[in-house]
Every structure is written in structure tokens, then in C-alpha cells.
Amino acid sequence: MPDKILAQAPGDDCYRTVQHSGEPKGRVEKIGDIDIYIATPPTGTASISAKGIILFYANVYGPLYINNKLLQDYFTERGTLKLIKAVN
């Protein structure tokens, strides 16, 4: 009986991405030698209590990829506190 394979090797479609449009509103800063993306709430909306906390683990493209920046901006604008983990 042949071995069963649950998944084949990744194909070309696994590496394609659709780049979203928009202008990221955050900024890139360094902590040590690691670049991080910081998104801050719109002026006048910051408060001590956030609506929720999101631990953002970026996909294979990393937190500095435009799609991930725009996603982080989206949640920040809606009052969540984001904790961004950059995986190297």
C-alpha cells in the first residue's frame, strides 16, 4: 500500500499575493536592530482603555509588508491596542 500524502509541495500559487492599495498611516522605528511598525490611533481618540488587544503575528511577508501595515492601521483606527510580533 503506497504512503498517503496529505499535502503536496507548495506550488506557484502559494507564493502569489495581491497587494492592497492605500497609504500606511503608521511609522517604522527600530528597537535594537529590529524594524517595527507603529500605528497610533487618530488624534483625540487615544485612551487608557482599548476596546481590545490584538497580538499581531505577521504572515511570511512580515509586519512591514503593505498589506500587513494596512491591516494594523485598520484595527488601530477602531480602538484596539496592537502588540506586533516580528518573526525573524
Please describe what this structure looks like.
This protein has 88 residues and is of the alpha+beta class. The chain has a domain at 26-85. The protein is built from one helix and four strands; from the N terminus they run E-E-E-H-E. The chain has one helix at 66-77, and strands at residues 27-31, 34-38, 52-57, 80-85. The strands form two sheets. It has a two-stranded antiparallel sheet. A two-stranded parallel ribbon has the order 3-4. A hairpin with a 2-residue loop joins strand 1 (27-31) and strand 2 (34-38). The longest helix has 12 residues, at 66-77. GO terms for molecular function: hydrolase activity. This is Alpha beta-hydrolase. Residues 1-22 are annotated as: Disordered.
Largest sheet: 2 strands, antiparallel
Termini Cα gap: 41 Å
The share of residues in helices is 10-25%
Task: Provide a count of the helices.
Answer: 1
Q: Per the principal axes of the C-alpha atoms, what is the gross shape?
A: elongated
Radius of gyration: 17 Å
Q: Give the overall average pLDDT.
A: 78
Sheet-strand content, in percent, reads 25-35%
Tally of DSSP β-strands: 4
- Report low-confidence residues grouped into runs of 5 or more: none
Output the structural class.
alpha+beta
Task: Give the topology string: H per helix, E per strand.
Answer: EEEHE
Going across the biggest sheet, name each strand in turn.
1-2
Organism: Pyrrhoderma noxium
Protein name: Alpha beta-hydrolase
GO molecular function, one term: hydrolase activity
